[in-house]
Write a structure and sequence with these properties.
mainly alpha, two-stranded antiparallel ribbon, 2 strands
Length: 80
């Protein structure tokens, strides 16, 4: 019986990660907390609204940041 509960607890920990506050999310993205809130309100970054509080998942923020990266263009590719 203990094994089944331990397996369920492990699966739950893998699925749910702690939610970040705007200050923690801003620190992760290296932006000001007010900028993080402004982007959350305008749907610029992925966020969850719980009542009047905004929360963020680190994995969503990392995926969003990765999607914002523009590919580098080599200087010799520009002349062709």
């Amino acid at each position: 019986m203990q094994t089944a509960r331990s397996t369920n607890d492990t699966l739950l920990k893998q699925v749910w990660e702690p939610l970040l506050t705007p200050i923690e999310a801003a620190d992760l993205l290296r932006i000001h907390p007010k900028t993080a809130l402004r982007l959350a309100r305008s749907h610029g970054i992925p966020a969850i609204r719980l009542g009047k509080h905004w929360r963020f998942r680190a994995c969503d923020l990392r995926s969003w940041a990765d999607s914002q990266i523009q590919p580098c263009v080599e200087p010799n590719e520009l002349s062709e």
